[in-house]
Design brief:
82 residues, mainly alpha, two-stranded parallel sheet, 3 helices
């Protein structure tokens, strides 16, 4: 199990990110909850065809910002308990 259920993949040197995305969603898209963050329209259509959810890079930045704010609020709440 990954922290928070999130796994981040990077393509190897000389390999395209698109080929990695396509391989992973073909393998896991139907059986696992997979979300692909990309602004490439063709890659989004391909990922969705394999059962993955897709979000834009802008949406990903928003999700990260929301998570950061929630963590910050939780830390501040814990500090006030002391």
């Amino acid at each position: 199990s990954e922290p928070g259920g999130i796994r981040v993949f990077y393509s190897k040197a000389g390999k395209s990110a698109d080929s990695l995305i396509e391989r992973l969603v073909a393998k896991y898209g139907a059986t696992c909850e997979v979300t692909v963050a990309t602004d490439d329209r063709l890659e989004r259509v391909t990922a969705e065809a394999f059962g993955a959810m897709t979000i834009s890079s802008h949406q990903l930045r928003g999700e990260i910002g929301t998570a950061e704010a929630a963590v910050g609020a939780a830390i501040e709440k814990l500090r006030r308990r002391r």
